[in-house]
Amino acid sequence: MRAERASKPRLDGKIALITGVGGGMGVAAARRFAAEGARVVGCDLDEDGAARTEELVRSEGGDITVFGGVDLGDAAVARDWVDAAVATYDGIDVLYNNASTQRFAPLDELSIEDWDFTMRNELDLVYYTVRAAWPHLKAYGGGSIINVGSIAALRGVEFMPQNAHSTAKGGVISLTLQLVVEGGPHGIRANVISPGMTETPNTAPLLADPPERMRRVVLDRIPLGRHGQPEDVVNAAVFLASDESSWISGTNIVIDGGASVLG
């Protein structure tokens, strides 16, 4: 009987740039991509978080370099990081735009400063990193861009006011569609992952003791009966980064346990 040949890791040899790896979903992404054979270059504004992630992934045998103190909302800083990241392993196959920071308040209470902050840190930083990576992706023969959206871009959200967040993530989805058209001739694919309620360091306290309204209008209406985990999102990202999705561009994968179909 012939022994089965061991399969290669799904991202074997790929060079993946991942933003926002200092905490939450970014840590899970860095660990999983490295475990799947990718050489990871990460960044985060939080220098301590960036260092912790780098140490963790290396302790697990992963190949990773993380830059701390990187403010991707500054176009020049984003360009410098992308250039340095591409130079680290001499290439780029994946750009995973995970980093995101937002502020919430009702429409008539949200300040202009908070609106601008959210646009800068949820939409502008995606554009800046993509713009910086674009010539590299073209030069290296294409690659996969993975942008993180949100179900807040697809429907109103009852349990908290998310007007700026929804708008920014809607912009991310629209930008991605244009990247599909402009990138296709260069072998560049672009897709979106839109999570629903997912447990992160920011949401964990809320999920541990959810307000009654949040439970009633969100958690109790998830058909699969649970909120998401970072790994649920990262699983989709691994697929979109891999050659398994080589003919997929322009999708928006909604990861919310089926909640959004209820309207």
TrEMBL record:
Gene3D superfamilies: NAD(P)-binding Rossmann-like Domain. It holds the Pfam family adh_short_C2. The keyword Oxidoreductase applies. It comes from the Bacteria. Coiled coil: none annotated. The keyword Signal does not apply. Its EC number is 1.1.1.-. InterPro entries: NAD(P)-bd_dom_sf (IPR036291), SDR_DHRS6-like (IPR051122), SDR_fam (IPR002347). Signal peptide: none annotated. SUPFAM superfamilies: NAD(P)-binding Rossmann-fold domains. Belongs to the short-chain dehydrogenases/reductases (SDR) family. This is SDR family NAD(P)-dependent oxidoreductase.
